[in-house]
Structure formats: C-alpha cells, structure tokens
C-alpha cells in the first residue's frame, strides 16, 4: 500500500516537473525578467541589453527580410525607433529564422536589407535560435517591450505592433506605442499587455 | 430510355462540383465557428493559411490528400485563408483555381485576431500556418502551431 502511495506521489511529482518545463519552453510572460543576451549585429558588433546604459527599456522586434507581414510592418518598426529611441526606448531587431530554411534571411541579406531601408537600430542574427526560444517568439513580426528596473529588464508587452496590418493609418489600436507611452508616463504595467496578429511562423532548424 | 437521362445529369453534377471547388466564400468569425463546431462524428481538420505564406503553400497538398482519400477516421478538411479580403479576386481565387484545390476554402475576414482567437484557439499566437483538429462532440482537440512535415498529418490523425 505504501509503495503504491509513493509511486503515485512520484508520478504526480513527475507530472508537475513536465508541466513546469513545458511552461518554460513557452518563453517569457509579461512581468518576467529577461535574461541578457549577446547577439551579432549586421555591423559585426555584439549587442546586448546592458550595452546601452541610458535606456529606460527596449522595443525588441523579432522580424526578418522575407515575411510579407514583416515587410508591411518594416516602416512602422523604423518609425518606432525614430519616435522612441530618444525617449529611452530604442528598437533592437532580431532575425530569428534558420537561414538554411530561409536563405533570404542570411546575414548578408540582412545587411543589404538594413542598408537599403536605412535601419537606424541594431539588426541582430539569432543563429542558434536560443534567444528566440527564450523569448517564446513564434512569428515575425513579434514584438516585446521590456522595461528597465534597476539593472534588470522586465517584459511589459508581447505581441503585435497594431491591429491593422494593411493600413497603419486605419489602425485603431497601436499596441506597442500605447505600451511605451504608458511606461514613459511612469506606469509599470500597461493596459493592454498582449495582443495577437497574423504573422509568418518562425522557420526553425530541423531538430 | 429513362436510364439515359443519367448521362445528362452526371456531367452536370460533375460540373457543379468543379464550380463549387473553385469558389471561395468570405466568412466572419460566427460562420467559422459554426463550421468548426458541427456536432457530428466527423473530425474537423481546419488549416489556417495564406497565399503569401510559403510554408503554408508547401503543406497544402497534405490537406488536399487527406480531403481526397480520407483517413482511418471520418474527416472534413477546411482551408481557412487569412489573406486580406482585398486580395480575394486577384490572389486567393486565382491561387485556388491554379492549384485545383478541392477542399472547402473560405476566406476569414477577421484581421483583428484579438476579437475572436481566444474563443476558438487561445494557444495561437497568430503564426501561420496553424492547424486545429477538433470534434466537439467527442471532445477531440489538437492544436498544431507549425507546419506539418510530409506524412505527419496522417499520423497525427491516426493517433487521435
């Protein structure tokens, strides 16, 4: 009898552990602390969150060259940096796709794209896809607004840029802008901490 | 003599089928929900895709094959295009025609996912492609948030 009890207890414990890891695999949730990373930018320099001392946070954009949705949002990402970098929320763009699955997202192609569009922010390559997994990014474009708290960075917003892919002027909800505006106004939690939009699934390496 | 009339009806019937296969109806969320939540014993295989999504286009033949030959269980394939409704006539319809898609195709005109996704697939981030296999009556539900590999769809359905 005791054996049975121990066995069921162990099974329960195991179930909890599995569930625990499953949650972790889903990536950061709003409020979570972000582990700093170091990824190579298109200029060859390594970029990390702790690299810029003056910031209040970052607008992190998982985006790429090839996804049609990412392309329609590209100008809006550039505009976000133009509007918020000076206010303390610069953009960091991360290209998450496996370049074998998506050759148009190669390091060289990233350099060309950034040059032709005049990116004013770092465009980083997540070659191992580990950072993408840590964040739990699933599609491009996928945005994460992180807020600096002491030396830590905490997730304040996850999701879409706005609610109108086709027409930025017609968007009734500008999620990222609203979130950053609220953070700049001193809030620590934003009104809409997450929102979805159709995007391209990230192209993962073959496991 | 009476029997001969069938020779007239059959081609007409086949023609009607082809016409039906190539039409793409624009639907709202309520329509989609009705299609997905049918209370019968057939497994609904609902694939969310778009003409601009490479991996989606690549996996479509698997859904077409399933629609054509079926599986170990009764299945009903529904291809839900997430394309912009403005591209219905110049992109989606020509695509469906050119690929000779036989499965039922609808265009879901609900670009703001936040108004409906939680009601149907809360697990979904919006990344395409996405597949939902569901039968509410028998409480079967499987969310696939990434492309299915060759042969994967059949084996997933066999395991349900």
TrEMBL record, chain A:
<protein>
    <submittedName>
        <fullName>AhpC/TSA family protein</fullName>
    </submittedName>
</protein>
<keyword id="KW-0732">Signal</keyword>
<dbReference type="InterPro" id="IPR047262">
    <property type="entry name" value="PRX-like1"/>
</dbReference>
<dbReference type="GO" id="GO:0016491">
    <property type="term" value="F:oxidoreductase activity"/>
</dbReference>
<dbReference type="GO" id="GO:0016209">
    <property type="term" value="F:antioxidant activity"/>
</dbReference>
<dbReference type="InterPro" id="IPR000866">
    <property type="entry name" value="AhpC/TSA"/>
</dbReference>
<dbReference type="InterPro" id="IPR013766">
    <property type="entry name" value="Thioredoxin_domain"/>
</dbReference>
<feature type="domain" description="Thioredoxin">
    <location>
        <begin position="28"/>
        <end position="185"/>
    </location>
</feature>
<dbReference type="Pfam" id="PF00578">
    <property type="entry name" value="AhpC-TSA"/>
</dbReference>
<feature type="signal peptide">
    <location>
        <begin position="1"/>
        <end position="24"/>
    </location>
</feature>
<dbReference type="InterPro" id="IPR036249">
    <property type="entry name" value="Thioredoxin-like_sf"/>
</dbReference>
From TrEMBL, chain B:
<dbReference type="InterPro" id="IPR000866">
    <property type="entry name" value="AhpC/TSA"/>
</dbReference>
<dbReference type="Pfam" id="PF00578">
    <property type="entry name" value="AhpC-TSA"/>
</dbReference>
<dbReference type="InterPro" id="IPR013766">
    <property type="entry name" value="Thioredoxin_domain"/>
</dbReference>
<dbReference type="GO" id="GO:0016209">
    <property type="term" value="F:antioxidant activity"/>
</dbReference>
<keyword id="KW-0676">Redox-active center</keyword>
<dbReference type="InterPro" id="IPR050553">
    <property type="entry name" value="Thioredoxin_ResA/DsbE_sf"/>
</dbReference>
<dbReference type="InterPro" id="IPR017937">
    <property type="entry name" value="Thioredoxin_CS"/>
</dbReference>
<dbReference type="GO" id="GO:0016491">
    <property type="term" value="F:oxidoreductase activity"/>
</dbReference>
<protein>
    <submittedName>
        <fullName>AhpC/TSA family protein</fullName>
    </submittedName>
</protein>
<feature type="domain" description="Thioredoxin">
    <location>
        <begin position="13"/>
        <end position="160"/>
    </location>
</feature>
<dbReference type="InterPro" id="IPR036249">
    <property type="entry name" value="Thioredoxin-like_sf"/>
</dbReference>
